[in-house]
Amino acid sequence: MRPSTSGAAALSPADLFDENGNLKKFRFVSAHQHLMGLLDSQFDEDNYSLFRYKIYSEQKDENGDSVGIWNQFGYKVGWNGAGAYFRRTALMELFCSYLVPENDSQKSILHGFGKPVSRKRYDRIESFIRSQINQKKHNTRMKKAVRNWESDLNWLNNHLQVLLQRGHFELCENQDDPNVPLVERKFLEEKEIEKGTVIDLI
């Protein structure tokens, strides 16, 4: 699911004053804090977006190096990785996406990810992150990456808590849906969040 973003909120007089006519207290938070707040809420199975991406077998980054499906979705950790909002948005896009192979050699690999918004897709994401933690946790140079993986896994389990409590779940009928527009998934660099503020009621 791609969380919606917003700039400064437009408030009516009714928003500014309480029932006794007193001015409400406000706080101004950064756009980053606002977006993180959206990801802190529970996954809403009645209100999410489905994506459909072509996955390339020979995708290259800006240095010409081959990247896997995780980097194609912008999921990068460690000192040169993305911030928490971008990492977790990437995980949710992967969780909610139809994965269309570039060629036949990828079909079995992508089939292993299961359908979008399914227990199998969650298990594939969870097993990848957990395996990275187990493999790298004793490498002192990977401390930040391991902290990112651990933090993201905790967040993912909390965000999908309602679905996970069911055990098995599968919200999409098929592995692919041609009715969803196909987007060519290019290598993503972390984009700077547009500067601005969002008004939150205290």
Beta fraction: 5-15%
> Helices and strands, in N-to-C order?
HEHEHHEHHHHEE
Shape: globular
Radius of gyration using CA atoms only: 19 Å
Percent helix range:
25-40%
Q: Strand count, sense and closure of the main sheet?
A: 3 strands, parallel
The number of distinct β-strands equals 5
| Residue-averaged pLDDT | 78
- Give the distance, in angstroms, between the N- and C-terminal Cα atoms: 27 Å
In DSSP terms (H or I, runs of 4 or more residues), the helix count works out at 8
For the record, the count of structural domains works out to 1
Structural class: alpha/beta
Sheet with the most strands: spatial strand order = 3-2-4
Low-confidence stretches: 1-12, 26-32, 188-202
Describe the protein's topology.
Blueprint: H1 13-16, E1 26-30, H2 31-40, E2 51-55, H3 69-72, H4 84-95, E3 97-101, H5 107-111, H6 119-136, H7 143-159, H8 161-164, E4 183-184, E5 197-201
Parallel strand pairs: 2-3, 2-4
Antiparallel strand pairs: 1-5
Overview of the structural elements:
The chain is an alpha/beta fold and 202 residues long. It has one domain (43-193). Helices cover 37% and strands 11% of the residues. The chain is built from eight helices and five strands. It has a three-stranded parallel β-sheet. Strands 1-5 form a two-stranded antiparallel sheet. Helix 2 packs across helix 4, helix 4 crosses helix 7 (143-159) and helix 6 runs antiparallel to helix 7 (143-159). The protein is globular and about 65 Å long. The two termini are 27 Å apart. 21% of the residues are buried.
